[in-house]
Amino acid sequence: MIRPGRLLVGLTTLALTMAGCGSSAGSAGAAGSVGSHTGTAGSESGVSGTVTVFAAASLTDVFTALGKQFESAHPGVRVQFNFAGSSTLAEQINQGAPADVFAAASTSTMQTVVDADGSAGEPRVFATNTLQIVVPAGNPAGISGLADLADPSRKIALCAEQVPCGAAAVAVFAEAKLTPKPDTLEQDVRSVLTKVELGEVDAGLVYRTDVLVGGDKVEGLDFPEAADNANRYPITVLSQAPNPGAAAAFVALVQSPDGLAQLQAAGFGRP
Question: SS3 for 103?
Answer without folding.
Answer: strand
